[in-house]
Design a protein that fits this description.
Blueprint lengths: L2 H15 L4 H12 L9 H13 L4 E5 L5 H7 L7 E6 L2 H13 L6 E5 L2 H11 L6 E4 L6 H10 L6 E5 L15 H15 L3 E8 L6 E8 L1
Parallel strand pairs: 1-2, 1-4, 2-3, 4-5
Antiparallel strand pairs: 5-7, 6-7
Helix pairs in contact: 2-5, 3-4, 6-7, 7-8
């Protein structure tokens, strides 16, 4: 089957189940206009993310990797009343665009963007203390995925849902001789996840407009 048919099915699903409002549509436009990389989650993946998060009735959500805020909006809308979301973004330009998009979506009061290297920001969140996160979404640079997951565990409680995107990489994770640093980073993450006694986890393959990839789902024991 060609990738075209996957995109066609995505469009069929989106027309029936994903009703993007002006805030989401504008976010996609600002990502294009701002020359951000076109790597946001797809429309139906956004709604899937929202539904997964909502099942956990989250008061606190952590996102690693903001980009233009498209996934951030979906996640923040799953918060319980009075809930808070923290999202980490390395690039100031990306963060500025995402900040504007969150304001347009009416989420500026509940969603906070922290700009900096996530490997440096995550220990600060741990040191700051406070209640752990109910949902954590990892969707940033792939090389340190294993480290992101380790920090996610430290910022969790039993029952926390950890969602990690882009973990199949069009099946390149099967290549034991790969030299691609992103694929190698995902392979390290999968090895760590599969051997972790701290979570119950699996990986679901996905196809669609984003081609062949996958999402890891882990519930902290």
């Amino acid at each position: 089957m060609s990738n075209d048919i996957f995109g066609d099915v995505d469009r069929f699903i989106n027309q029936r189940f994903v009703k993007e409002d002006n805030a989401l549509l504008q976010t996609k436009q600002t990502i294009i206009a701002g020359n951000l990389p076109p790597i946001s989650i797809s429309e139906n993946q956004g709604k899937f993310l929202y539904m997964l998060a909502r099942l956990n009735k989250p008061q606190k959500i952590l996102e690693i990797g903001t980009l233009g805020g498209y996934s951030t909006i979906w996640l923040a809308r799953a918060l319980q009343p009075g809930g808070k979301l923290i999202t980490l973004e390395l690039d100031q330009h990306h963060a500025d665009i995402a900040t504007s998009n969150l304001q347009v979506a009416g989420l500026g009061d509940c969603a906070t963007i922290r700009v900096g290297n996530a490997i440096e920001e995550l220990p600060k969140l741990k040191a700051k203390g406070g209640s752990p996160f109910d949902v954590i979404f990892i969707d940033a640079d792939k090389e340190p995925y294993a480290e992101y997951f380790q920090w996610a565990l430290q910022l969790s409680h039993p029952g926390t849902l950890i969602i990690t995107d882009n973990v199949v990489r069009e099946a390149r994770i099967l290549d034991e001789n790969t030299t691609d640093p992103e694929v190698k980073g995902v392979q390290r993450f999968i090895e760590l996840l599969s051997n972790s006694k701290e979570v119950t986890a699996t990986i679901i393959q996905t196809v669609g407009s984003k081609y062949h990839d996958g999402i890891a789902l882990a519930i902290v024991n």
